[in-house]
Amino acid sequence: MHICLSDGWGGLEMYPARIIPELQRQGWQAHGLALAGSRVAESLASTGIAPLTVPSRGRALLQVGRILGYLKRHGIEVLHCHKSSDLRLGALLATLRPTLQLFFTDHMGVTRPKKDFYHRWAYGRVSRLFAISEATRQRNLKAFPLPPERIRRLYLGIDLTPYAPQLDEPAREALRRELGVMPGQVAIGLPGRLTDGKGHEVWLEGLARLAERAPELAWHGVLIGGLSAREGSDERYVSHLRSRIEELKLGQRVTFAGFRPDLPRLFEALDIVCVPSRNEAFGLTVVEAMAAGKAIVGADSGAIPELLEADCGRLAAAEESQAWAEAMAELGQDAALRERLGQTARARAERHFGVAAHVEALIREYAGKEPTS
Predict the structure, then answer these.
(1) pTM given for the model
(2) What's the whole-number mean pLDDT along residues 285-294?
(3) Fewer CB within 10 A of the end CB, N or C, for the chain?
């Protein structure tokens, strides 16, 4: 059973529904526990399972008897939590039913030590803690009250199939026009939640500098991500970005695409994908762009350098807009380089970041087997 009692919507919340179809394909019966009416519950239902729901995190603790009954009826022996706050419930369930195995994925990257009495109790019930990158694993080793052998790096994986090109040239050009990209322009996109910390401002400042650095280059910027809280974004921050775009005189050169369920197709419409997040715990957008065969510019911080090797894209200093302008200019002016980087990125995604390989590794952990070399 995957437990995700979150009312937000981001990579963490998307994870259970992302991997459950592959778990089922590999022979596991998957269940979910979510907040009633949440996007997580909706996403679980979209995979074909009926999630067990609770009204709130607090009520989940009061309904522990009901949840234990559900686990017993369905023969569930593995619990997998995705928010640290959900470990209260997971650890309580594992305490009341000691045969349960409890797993936890640290999707966010811990920032402070968790070694007080409560955390020693909660994490003491965890069979395995998964770090989603080596960068977060190193922080996990220092922060969590667990021996090193119970903390494993497990890169996330995605279904690569939807990211293969599907549009013919007329359809691609029509989609580009819909995004405000005119014929002959280089489309430079930034996909992801519109929240502080994702690097939107340094990217916009980089675009303003790009206009000065390469005045002959025709380009258009595309911001892809929900514009409302329901879609996972910070509405005040969205308003701030709109103001910043006007201040930088980019009003005619940047489009807000909003939330798009057809993200793989939007990647087809882009020439360059930028991921300027300051401290990404993994970098799912980087992997998605790699799977789409795009030329990528990523921040040189967090886990992104682990994913984006030199022959797959370019790194730019997370806080330096001039560095972003230089990287975007290099790729924007060289279509052959973009093509070469994109092909190498796609091959790397196929080797290392497919969901099937991720789930195989996850199942080995569920079964208590040592990871393969």
Answers:
(1) 0.88
(2) 97
(3) C
